[in-house]
Amino acid sequence: MATIGKTTPAPARPSSRDDRGFVGHPKGLAWLFQVEFWERFSYYGMKAILLYFIVDTVANGGLQIKDSTGEAIVATYGAAVYLLAIPGGLAADRLLGAWRSTLYGGIIIMVGHICLALPTVATAWLGICLVAIGTGFIKPNLSTMVGELYDRDDPRRDGGFQIFYMSINIGAFLSPLIVGFLQGRWGYHVGFSAAAVGMGLAILSFVAGKKALHGIGSTVPNPLTGKDGARVAGVSVAVVVGTAVLYFVFNALEGGATTAAIVDTVAALSIVAAVGYFVMMFRSPKVDATERSHLAAYVPLWVGGALFFMIFEQAAVKMASFAKDNTQLQVGGFTINPSWYQSINPVAIVVLAPIVGWFFTRRAGRFPQTPAKFALSVALIGLSAMLMGWAFGTWSGGSSLAPFYFLGLVFVMQTVAELFLSPVGLSATTMLAPKAFASQAMALWLLTSAVGQGVAALLIKGMAGLSDAAFYYTLGGMTLACAVVLFALVPWTQRKMKDVEDMRRDSSDAARAARAH
């Protein structure tokens, strides 16, 4: 029977422990670092000005959509980006392999940014859709390739993800500054063009660094057979039809409001997709008993991650609105561009990530172990939401503005929470994922952001008549309650993944002993 998506087997590669070509890590990490840097430059540069573009007047080059609707659109766009990681992970696992999926995704993103750079409404919406589709093909697969750089017992894995995470944040730091400056000087479309250039450089880096990966990402882990192909095609058609049905049902329930129906549809699809992934993996005959135990441990971590991103991803939504409308932007004779606040989180990560990465590597398999890191992170992000609720209630805009530094302090607080969850979540996913679902499990992790942003969009839409303070207090209360549950579940979760944590601890001890000699 013919096999679809079959590729030449990857050449044998040396043990990751023998590869220290990039600051003590495998040299392939240097190239993936560059790819992620430029891809994130393009993505966060676009996102830094997206809300302002949507709500600004037509005379200023915007789309002139009211603020609450614009916020719901941006949150839904973020959810869609991560929801589309599902076909991206499926394409890598069954059809193309991670390397080609990432390459094609990058090309689609670049075309999307070029569309955004054109001064028409139609190309603007087309560009937003293309960027979402292309990002879905990159996000699960680039992270998977980073995980594959390391042997499973290599104690540098968490540290490697911290370095990789730094590339995200260096790009995310520079892009709002550059894109925001260009937008302020020459308009939105010139700002979007800078994002297109960044994506072009990412593609060049990815192609140039292929040899250093030693074949990682070139094979299809679980290629489709002819029978599988027919089944997947049938499922794909069913998903498209089901999405259309959902949209028309929600459109009728929302009284014909197109934007509200899209918000409802994306949120519903995100939740259904996440539940479906877990059910599929738990029931798959390709998943053994040990892998099912790991999946059980992963469930509370995943739920905590979804609530974390529900608040964290408000950076480009409610916090962007707070920067523009509720913050003192005149400091002496200097005017702060509100989009520049988006650079605070990444620069804080660049400063703090090496310290936290070193600490996590030294403490591998010991407290704070993975479940405790998640619980601490969720508690901290919940407290930051309560703080934003207080801020919206205290500084209402107009003549009542927050000092310029306040929002920066909240971003730093959320950064600390992020460092205890996001790179740890990437690493945990690569360690706990069933082998047959490597890239798709990474897509499942990215669905934490899809579900979180989807739920946030529903709340933004549903609470449009209430205050922003009420919105944040609602999110904060939900998340703090979840943090209490996660703390209570730490012993159970730890037992379910004990073999993974023991392996990491033993590897870390062996590495320290080797350095001592």
Automatic annotation (TrEMBL):
Claim: Transferase is one of the keywords in the record: no
Membrane topology: Multi-pass membrane protein
Pfam families noted in UniProt: PTR2
Family of the protein in this entry: Belongs to the major facilitator superfamily. Proton-dependent oligopeptide transporter (POT/PTR) (TC 2.A.17) family.
Keyword Plastid: no
Annotated Gene3D superfamilies: MFS general substrate transporter like domains (1.20.1250.20)
PANTHER family xrefs: PROTON-DEPENDENT OLIGOPEPTIDE FAMILY TRANSPORT PROTEIN, RESISTANCE PROTEIN MDTM, PUTATIVE-RELATED-RELATED
Membrane-crossing residue ranges in chain numbering: 41-60, 72-92, 104-133, 163-182, 188-209, 230-250, 262-283, 295-312, 340-360, 372-392, 404-421, 442-464, 470-490
GO biological process: oligopeptide transport
One term under GO cellular component: plasma membrane
Keywords associated with the record: Cell membrane, Membrane, Transmembrane, Transmembrane helix, Transport
Protein name, UniProt field: MFS transporter
Protein location: Cell membrane; Membrane
One example GO MF annotation: peptide transmembrane transporter activity
Main location class: membrane
